[in-house]
Amino acid sequence: xxxxxxxxxxxxxxxxxxxxxxxxxxxxxxxxxxxxxxxxxxxxxxxxxxxxxxxxxxxxxxxxxxxxxxxxxxxxxxxxxxxxxxxxxxxxxxxxxxxxxxxxxxxxxxxxxxxxxxxxxxxxxxxxxxxxxxxxxxxxxxxxxxxxxxxxxxxxxxxxxxxxxxxxxxxxxxxxxxxxxxxxxxxxxxxxxxxxxxxxxxxxxxxxxxxxxxxxxxxxxxxxxxxxxxxxxxxxxxxxxxxx
Amino acid sequence: xxxxxxxxxxxxxxxxxxxxxxxxxxxxxxxxxxxxxxxxxxxxxxxxxxxxxxxxxxxxxxxxxxxxxxxxxxxxxxxxxxxxxxxxxxxxxxxxxxxxxxxxxxxxxxxxxxxxxxxxxxxxxxxxxxxxxxxxxxxxxxxxxxxxxxxxxxxxxxxxxxxxxxxxxxxxxxxxxxxxxxxxxxxxxxxxxxxxxxxxxxxxxxxxxxxxxxxxxxxxxxxxxxxxxxxxxxxxxxxxxxxx
Amino acid sequence: xxxxxxxxxxxxxxxxxxxxxxxxxxxxxxxxxxxxxxxxxxxxxxxxxxxxxxxxxxxxxxxxxxxxxxxxxxxxxxxxxxxxxxxxxxxxxxxxxxxxxxxxxxxxxxxxxxxxxxxxxxxxxxxxxxxxxxxxxxxxxxxxxxxxxxxxxxxxxxxxxxxxxxxxxxxxxxxxxxxxxxxxxxxxxxxxxxxxxxxxxxxxxxxxxxxxxxxxxxxxxxxxxxxxxxxxxxxxxxxxxxxx
Amino acid sequence: xxxxxxxxxxxxxxxxxxxxxxxxxxxxxxxxxxxxxxxxxxxxxxxxxxxxxxxxxxxxxxxxxxxxxxxxxxxxxxxxxxxxxxxxxxxxxxxxxxxxxxxxxxxxxxxxxxxxxxxxxxxxxxxxxxxxxxxxxxxxxxxxxxxxxxxxxxxxxxxxxxxxxxxxxxxxxxxxxxxxxxxxxxxxxxxxxxxxxxxxxxxxxxxxxxxxxxxxxxxxxxxxxxxxxxxxxxxxxxxxxxxx
Lengths: 244, 244, 244, 244
Description:
The structure is a homotetramer. By secondary structure, chain A is mostly beta strands. Chain A has three helices and eleven strands, in the order βαβαββαβββββββ.
C-alpha cells in the first residue's frame, strides 16, 4: 500500500508511493553560531538550544524499490531541491539536530516529509549545480517564497576534509504537529549516511524571511565555515520520543 | 494554534494557519455518466458507485479570520486553482459525492486538504478567467502533471439556471488515508454553499492520465452538460463515518 | 503569419500568434515621487526624468482575433501577471510614461512585449484577486525573482474617482534594445484605454531588488496614493521616435 | 553592453548579460527516422528534409565571463532544461541539423536563443539526473506544456561509444523569424563541442503535441538508438545564410 491517497485498486496513483525511501543529496552548507535566547522562539519548550546552527541547500534525487520506474518515467516527481535549518539542541541532556524550518519544491517531498514530522513548505530553491565539467570559484544556494528571500548561502571550496561537523549535532529531531489530526509529538529520525567527497572553505549566509516565515531568530552571530558534499541518505530509524 | 508546522512562539510561520477556512470558487464544470464497473477501481470497497460523475476546474480564493492579512501581504499563499472529480456513490444506501482525485497548485491548499481527507496532488491548472470585461464564447479548464494531461473541460454558456445537479450527489465523502500515521477512515465533509449566478450549456470533457495518475476509469460514457458558476463555500461539518 | 517561431505550414505553433492584441487588466497601483537624480540611472540619455513614478501589479487576460480559441483551449497561454514601473520623463520637452522595468510570468507575454520594446523579464507575481464575492480591506501585489523581492504594493480602497493620474504621464515610451540584432531605438506606444470603475485610497510601496535587478533608484521619496482599477487596453499606435 | 534590456547605467539588470556564452549539457537523446513528406510541414521551403531526426532532453548550465558571479549569486538564472528536435536537412545540397522546435524552462535561455534564431518556447521539462551515486537502469526525459505532453524519451544505457551520430547531421541551421521586427532569415550556428563519455543503448520516443504545438510530423517511422552524454558547447560561428 502507498503512503497516501489518491488510492486506486493498483495503488499506482498515490502522491507518495510506498517506501523505504533513500536520497542522494548534493549540498551547499554553512555552519554558524546563533543567539540561543532567540533560537528558543523556534523550538519546542522541552528543548534547550545551543548556539550551533547548520544551514543547507540541497539538490536531491529520491528513490524507493516500490517506485523504481518513476525515476525514468516521470523523473521530476522524485527529484527536488531543499533548504533547511538545523539547531543543535538538548533534550533531557542529549544532543540532537533539531529542524525548525525546511523548504522543498515538490509535492511528493512535502507530504512524505510532513508525515514524518519535517516542517516543510514549498519554496523556490536554486543551487549551483555540481558537475565535473563546471568548476566555479564559488557555489551558492538560495531559497525564496511569498515575495521575499529566505536564505542565501555562499561557499568557496578550499580543501577536502574527512568529516562534517553537522554529524556532531546528533540524530535529527522533529516536532510532528498536525492539529486537525490531534498529532503533536517529538520524533527522532536517525539517518544512515554515506558521504562521497566533502570539501570545506569560506562560507557566508544571509537570512531573510517575511510575514509567513519568521527566520530572524536564525540570524548568525558568527559564521564558521562552508561545506560542499554529496551524500546518500537512508532512514535507519524513526521513533516517537514524547509529546511535542 | 495553527494547523501545521513550522511552529514558532507566535504561530505565524505555519504552512496552514488556523481556520475556520472559507473559499470563493469560480468554476468550469461538466456532468457526465461513466461506467460504474470501472469507477469501482477508484473507490473504497464500502462504496457503491453510481454512473454520475462531476468534473470541475476552479479558480479559488481562500481566507480565514485568523490569517486575514495574508490575503494582501502575500496573496498568492491563499489563492489556488483546483481540478477535481467526484463520483456519486452509495454508502449504506445513502448518496454521497465521493472524491477520488483532486489536484491543486498550492502547498497551503494541498496540506490543508490532505488533513481533511481530500486526495490532493500538485498539478498545473489553467482556466478561462471570469471577468466582466471579457466574454468568450467558450470557457475551458485543464490540468496536467508529470508529462501528461489529466483532464480538459470546455463549456459553452447558454442559459442561467437555478440549481446545480452536483448538489443532488449528496454531501462530500473522502477517504482520509495516511499510512505512516495509521490513518484510514471515511470522512463526511458537509459544505455550506452560497451560489451567485449559475450558467448552463454544452459541455465536453477529455480525460487523460499517466503512470502516476490512473484516470481511465473516469472516461465518460455520455457527457451531459457544462456549467459555469461562482460559489462561496464554508465548512458546516467534518465527521468520521467509519473505517476506510 | 504569426509574430514568432516556431513556424509550421499552418502557423499554429508559434509562441506569439498574430495580433492585433488586446488586454484586460485588473490593477493594484501606487503613485509616488522619486529622486530624479537617481532615476536617471535607469533612463536613456535623451530622456529627462521628472519625480513622478507609477508602480503597478496587474492580473491580465490577452486576446487576439487570430488566436481566439486559445482563450479556452489553452487559457494559461494568454493569461499572465505583470509588475511594472513607469517614470514620467521628458523627451524633447514632451512628457511620456517611460518604462524602465517590467516583469511578467508568461513566455508569450515576455516575447510579445520584447519585440515592441517592453523591458520584460520573468518573475513570480501575486496580487489580491478582484472578485465580487470577496471584499478585503486591503489589496496587495508583489513580485519576486532570483531570491529577492522586487516590489510590494498595498492599497486600501476608499473612494471612486473619475480619472487615473497615470494618464497624465503621457503616451508610453520604450527603449527597444536587442544588441545581437543591432536594435537600439526609442519607441512610442500609444494605448487605447477603456476604464471600468477606478478606486483610490491610501497606498504603500516597498522597493526591493538584487544582483540582476537594480531597483534602488526607484525608492520613493514620497508615496502619494494607491489605486485599484480594471481597464481594457488596445494598441492605437506603435512608432519609432529615434535612436535609443 | 548586455544583449537585452532592462538597461541601467551599469548594465547589470539585463535579462541576457553580455556573452560569449558557453554551455554544459547532460543529455538524454534518441535518434529516429521520420517521414520526409510530413517533416516538410515544419521546414522552410528552401530546405529539403531527410528522414533523420534527433530528439533530446538536456539539463544545462550556461556561463559567460561577463556574468560569472550569477552562477553562484543567482544560480537559477543560468541553469535550465531544454527539449529539442533536429531534422537533418539539405540546403543547396549541403547537410545541416535544422531545428524546428525547441523548449526551455528559463527566460534567460528563451530570449538568448530567440535572438540567435532558436525557435524556443517555455515548457515544463524533466530528466533523470546524471549522478555518480545514482545508477538507474533507464534514463528518461520529458517535456509538457499547455495541458499536453510534447515528447518523452527513454534510454537504457548499454555501451560506451566514441561518436554521436547527431554530429553527422551537419552544423545547426535556424530560421530566425520575428515578424514585428521584419526579420526572417536562415542562420547557421556552428558549435564547438567537447564530449565527455558517450553511452549508447536502446531508446524509445513518444511524440505528443496539442493546439499550440503541432508535433505530429515528427512521429517516428523507426526508432534507432538512444544516447546519454555530457558535452561542453561553445559558439564557433553564427552567420546569416539567406532569407527564411
